[in-house]
Amino acid sequence: MEKLEKLRIEIDKLDKDIAVLLEKRFKVSMHIIKQKKEEKLPLFHPEREHEIINRVCSYVSDERFIEEIKCIQNLIIRMSRQVQSKYMFQKHIFIIGFMGSGKTTIAKKVADMLAMNMIEMDSAIEQRCNQPISDIFHMKGEGFFREMEHALLSEITESEVKSVVSTGGGIVLKESNVHLLKKHGTVIWLKATPKDIFLRLSKDAQRPLLKDNMSIERIEKMMNERDAAYRQVADFSIQTSHKKIDDIALEIVKFLGSVHDDK
After folding, report:
1. Confidence of residue 205 (pLDDT cuts 50, 70, 90)
2. Backbone φ, ψ for residue 237 (5° rounding)
3. Number of independent structural domains in the chain
4. φ, ψ for residue 53 (rounded to 5)?
5. 66, 87, 108 — which closes off a domain?
6. What integer is the mean pLDDT of 211-239?
7. Beta strands in 116-231 (DSSP E)
8. For ATP, which residues are the binding ones (predicted)?
9. pLDDT confidence bin for 200, thresholds 50/70/90
10. In which band, very low, low, confident or very high, does the pLDDT at 263 lie, cut at 50, 70 and 90?
């Protein structure tokens, strides 16, 4: 038992050393993000992160622990990004746009790059109602859905945890939602051509507003009807047609890094 106790004391000391070093690392990370902001440098630098991980692994003398240390270093880097995001973003990041514009996919990618929480509003409403969106529209009506949507948005904006939020396509139709979006977030508008929207949605039977009239003409009409509402609330817009997911997300992150002080 005496030998075990000594080993435990050694572990406790090592844990203390790790905690102190991590605290120092996070503080340096905050200085780095401030410097990047001043010099207008990209916030997200995956090549640099890969270099760090490879270099840290090269320090390991016992190969039995390389994979574990690699995993830990990955987590340290992600937590450093989270610390930086807490400093950078004092408001939520709202992703808006017509259905099928890529909101959920892009929101997930941006949230991953910034190590932020991600919320998909339609999925959250489905979980609360224990029903798919199409059934909610059919059984309770669009009005009920819009009230649920507004209630969820209000909850999100009241949270101290800032998130990347994928909104529903019609969230801008309610003026009270527009007020919340503009007041509590930076709003990114994803755009796509009607043809691309049609191709993305043509196999999706769960879109209640297009369920019985899925056509490029119908999509274009709805997009034109909502265009002014999207434009009114958006801080930044980006075309998603014929672009890679990573490229879209990187462009959004670049924009976010340039405007956070002004919002």
Report:
1. low
2. -125, 150
3. 2
4. -60, -45
5. 87
6. 88
7. 117-120, 163-166, 185-191
8. 100-105, 207
9. confident
10. very low
Say whether 70 counts as a known binding-site residue.
no
Which residues are CB-neighbours of 189 under 8 A, at least 6 positions away? 96, 97, 230, 231, 233, 234, 236, 237, 238
64 has binding-site annotation: no
* 169 labeled part of a ligand binding site: yes
- As beta bridge partners, residue 191 has 239
Show which of 37, 53, 87 is a domain's final residue: 87
Q: Is there a binding annotation on residue 58?
A: no
pLDDT grade for 97, boundaries at 50, 70 and 90: very high
Same domain (yes/no): 103, 216: yes
Q: Is 135 labelled as part of a ligand binding site?
A: no
> Are residue 38 and residue 152 in the same domain, yes or no?
no
Q: Work out the mean pLDDT of the chain and round it to a whole number.
A: 91
184 and 196 together in one domain: yes
55-82 pLDDT, tens digit each: 999 999 999 999 999 999 999 999 999 9
pLDDT of residue 69: 97
Domain boundaries, position 47: 2-87
The annotation status of 100 as a binding-site residue, yes or no, is: yes
Is 146 assigned to a binding site? yes
Q: How far is CA 25 from the centre of its chain?
A: 24
Report, as an integer, the average pLDDT of 196-201: 85
- Dihedral sign from CA coordinates of 52, 55, 60, 63: positive
Structure token digits, residue 223: 């997009």
Local structure of residue 185 (DSSP, 8 states): E
Total Cβ atoms within 10 A of residue 132: 15
Whether 204 has a binding-site annotation, put simply, is no
